[in-house]
Design a protein that fits this description.
This protein is an all-alpha fold. It is built from 14 helices and no strands.
């Protein structure tokens, strides 16, 4: 009897410690998402989707009812709460505790906080206007040395690579949901995704060019020495692990959101 009781106590302690570890991992992931600006970005996702629909409606003459239905489907699919859960789960499963602690230390540093603020301001009218100026032929004012730093940052974080995968994933998610709801054969999805894959080199080139421009503008207030410290963190094992977990989680959450949006679009069309 005593052995059974001791065994039960051990099992309960093991379960308690496991639960505490899971809770700590969840709290750690929440902190990373909050301090990095990820949560703020996700909160703004529905509004950003509505802007995209409004722009497409204005350019392509989309009827109001169609634009409203599409906006509703995208709001349903790109639900911030669900996307946060998806990304949090990916971080918990894929980011080493030591790397997470190092990333938190970086994000809580004065330079880390300043960089996060710059990244959160990427969608401000001032930043967008500056990017438009450069796209129209203005001088970006980026030296060869600074461009080399930005290229190292892109390579270490895999930002352009993951951006391309996100574009492809959103296409795949929307097409898969709509075609499945329509009863289309799997071969049709394969054919359409094959066409999308054929366009991958052009997408990659466009994404790299866009990111080079975005990085040049977003980080323009940083000195070369400050940017170099950010690159050093990004190239470290902890930095690579952190950025990979965050960007992969974001990319997968975007594809899942696209699937939900596609299902909502198909449901709306069937009414």
């Amino acid at each position: 009897m005593k052995q059974r009781i001791n065994g039960l106590i051990l099992a309960l302690l093991t379960a308690l410690l496991s639960t505490q570890a899971l809770a700590a991992a969840a709290q750690q992931a929440d902190s990373l998402m909050d301090l990095s600006g990820m949560n703020a970005q996700l909160e703004g996702m529905p509004g950003m989707m509505e802007q995209v629909v409004a722009q497409q409606a204005a350019e392509g003459g989309m009827p109001d009812w169609q634009a409203q239905a599409l906006s509703a489907a995208l709001r349903q699919g790109f639900d911030p709460a669900q996307m946060k859960r998806d990304i949090r789960g990916h971080i918990e499963d894929n980011l080493d505790d030591g790397h997470a602690d190092a990333a938190l230390d970086w994000l809580q540093s004065s330079l880390g906080q300043r960089i996060t603020a710059l990244e959160e301001g990427a969608d401000t009218p001032e930043v967008q206007a500056e990017m438009m100026r450069i796209m129209q032929g203005g001088d970006a004012g980026v030296s060869e040395r600074r461009q080399a730093l930005l290229d190292r940052f892109d390579a270490a974080t895999r930002a352009s690579e993951m951006s391309v995968e996100m574009v492809m994933g959103i296409q795949r998610g929307l097409l898969s949901a709509v075609l499945t709801a329509a009863g289309a054969p799997a071969e049709q999805l394969d054919m359409l995704m094959g066409q999308a894959e054929a366009a991958r080199p052009q997408i990659e080139a466009a994404v790299v060019q866009q990111n080079q421009l975005a990085f040049a503008v977003i980080y323009r207030e940083l000195s070369d020495a400050e940017l170099g410290k950010y690159v050093t963190f990004a190239e470290s094992k902890a930095g690579r692990g952190y950025h990979q977990a965050m960007l992969e989680g974001f990319s997968q959450a975007m594809e899942a959101a696209a699937v939900r949006s596609g299902e909502a679009i198909a449901a709306s069309a069937g009414q």
